């Protein structure tokens, strides 16, 4: 009211002599109380109906006066836009969940941490890496500082609010405390996959399918001219084969050169035995020997 307390008291006492107060005291005092309260709360009073339309806890539109048709139009318009917004949010959430699922299944054992195994950026992540390394666990990692959407989304996706988070075969194992408990009970070695020796891993890879092609890229997208040529030749034979993208694994890329004593890519293997690179495959095609070799007949 902008009045000091004494002045306010005098003003209120003066209202008791108001003719309307004498004629209809209850009505007048209720109305007076309403206006005084509105003033104290700094609420604006209107002489006609005012409709505010909210969306996401925000006022997005206003209608002055009792105009039913106009009010209906506004409600329908904002309800429609809210539905579109909700649909977009649902789609974005679904896309994020698909991405998170791919990430936690990117390796048999995935660690979501702050930083990297070589440079952890928090004490908990550092301890987690030390435990996994101590037990010879083979794992890949994802730095949550590199992607805020993943960092926040994974908390909800897995219902686990803190980091680091360890996943095995796409399933959440837990954080640092859980891993410490598994280590203390002797269960960690059975839960997490052991690091495989490179030679054993290479043997496993070249025998993963009867015909294995180690290349740059994959069947759908060759990432160098030599790889593109060799898949075109093999595709024309009609023989089924699998590929391994050496660009995604530097250890395999370098190790296989030494393992097979073959310094370049692509490399073609049949039943675990090296056939050769692009030039050899071209020669076999010209001589008519390629298909029998791919089928394991020679």
Automatic annotation (TrEMBL):
Pfam families for this protein: Glutaredoxin (PF00462)
InterPro entries: Glutaredoxin, GRX_PICOT-like, Monothiol_GRX-rel, Thioredoxin-like_sf
Transmembrane residue ranges: 26-46
Keywords: Iron, Iron-sulfur, Membrane, Metal-binding, Transmembrane, Transmembrane helix
Domain Glutaredoxin: 110-173, 211-275
Any Gene Ontology CC annotation: cytosol
UniProt KW Nucleotide-binding keyword: no
Family matches, as SUPFAM superfamilies: Thioredoxin-like
GO molecular function: iron-sulfur cluster binding; metal ion binding
Domain of life per record: Eukaryota
PROSITE patterns per UniProt: GLUTAREDOXIN_2
GO biological process, one term: intracellular iron ion homeostasis
NCBIfam families linked to this entry: Grx4 family monothiol glutaredoxin (TIGR00365)
PANTHER family per the UniProt record, alphabetical: GLUTAREDOXIN FAMILY MEMBER, GLUTAREDOXIN-3
Listed name of the protein: Glutaredoxin 3
Lineage: Eukaryota, Metazoa, Chordata, Craniata, Vertebrata
